Amino acid sequence: MITVLTGENGFELKRAYDAIVSGFDGAAERFDGSDLDISRLPELLAGATLFADKRLVIIKSLSDNKALWDVLPDWLPKVGDETHLVLVEQKPDKRTRTYKELKKFADVKEFAGWGDRDAHVAVAWVVTEAKRHELSLDKKSAQALVDRVGLDQWSLYYALQKLAVLESVSPEVIDTVIEANPTENVFNLFDAALRGDTKKVSGMIATLERSQDPYMTFGLLSSQVFQLAALAVSEKPSAEIASGIGAHPYALGKLAPHAKRLGKSGTRKIVTIFADTDTAMKSTAIDPWLLVEKALIKTASL
Predict the structure, then answer these.
(1) pLDDT digits (tens, 9 = 90+) for 5-49
(2) In this structure, which long-range contacts are made by residues 19-27, counting pairs with CB atoms below 8 Å and at least 24 apart in sequence?
(3) Is the CB of residue 10 less than 8 Å from the CB of residue 154?
(4) Contacts of residue 249, Cβ cutoff 8 Å, sequence gap at least 6
(5) In CATH terms, is domain 2-110 a member of 3.40.960.10?
(6) DSSP codes, 45-114
(7) For 104-133, what is each residue's pLDDT tens digit?
(8) What is the mean pLDDT of the chain?
(9) Rounded distance between C-alpha atoms, residue 156 and residue 139, angstroms
């Protein structure tokens, strides 16, 4: 039996990996495929040994070993019935002959990462996962947690562990107990600027400056500006625009009133402010955090 675990969703991949290991009655044999010698293949893929009737052989990152990866298809039919071969490949080249042969011989389980379009999937998963932690979480609270933490399953998992020790959970409790991810912080920062709250902007910049990278923060802010512009130039509902540009519907819904108030003219001014700031960050030695704050203060003045 051959199983391939692949995909960029590290959480689900590890959960599947752990399930295979825990379900095996014996000791798994683990190998790093990147430095595995080809002479070991007959030994690894053979059937039962003197010490065990069944074998679980796990090889990680075998595709990093090109010489062995290229000859693997010749060995796949030779995997013994008593051997469960598990290949863990986060991002294999699907164009290779080996991967195509694995699709024929193996049970390939692919775990895709979540994108902005998967927010509803994340909310449903949070509700289900909360039950594993003996935590009762309604859909509204689950949505609040996803909005607060983002779409990374590991971060959501650890947040649920933290919430599981509390007697009750609500969106207000989540905002108090769970630290916002950088994207959420930046969204709140941009929202403060759009509301003209310069005092809050300066305070948030001072906080972010202690732990975040200014260029990453500016990149996230620029993404918010792009979404604002998309709303300002379109007559379609925000949910439809979100689907078209691959953005989070909830985030666009909160930006929509600002886009309506600013209109095309006001939004164009913000786009210009951020374009000029981008040029300054790339061509001057001025403190990048100062440039970010200046851009937001100018935005607030509109």
Answers:
(1) 999 899 999 999 999 999 998 889 999 988 888 888 888 877 655
(2) 20/56, 20/84, 20/86, 21/56, 21/58, 24/54, 24/56, 24/84, 25/54, 26/52, 26/54, 26/55, 26/56, 27/52
(3) yes
(4) 119, 238, 239, 242, 243
(5) no
(6) HS---SS-SSEEEEEE-GGG-HHHHHHHHHHGGG--TTEEEEEEESS--TTSHHHHHHHHHSEEEE-PPP
(7) 989 999 999 887 678 889 999 999 999 999
(8) 88
(9) 15
pLDDT at residue 18, as a whole number: 95
Burial of 115 (0-12, 13-18, 19+ CB in 10 A): exposed
Q: What is the pLDDT of residues 151-191, one digit of tens each?
A: 889 989 999 999 999 988 999 999 889 887 777 778 888 99
pTM comes to: 0.66
CA pair distance 121, 156, nearest whole angstrom: 13
How many angstroms separate the CA atoms of 177 and 164, rounded?
11
pLDDT number for residue 243 = 75
Fold of 182-301: Zinc Finger, Delta Prime; domain 3 (1.20.272)
What distance in Å separates the CA atoms of residue 105 and residue 74, rounded to the nearest whole number? Answer: 11
- Please state which architecture CATH assigns to domain 116-177: Orthogonal Bundle (1.10)
All residues at 6 or more sequence positions from 222 whose CB lies less than 8 Å from its CB, including other chains: 274, 278
Q: Where are the domains of the chain?
A: 2-110, 116-177, 182-301
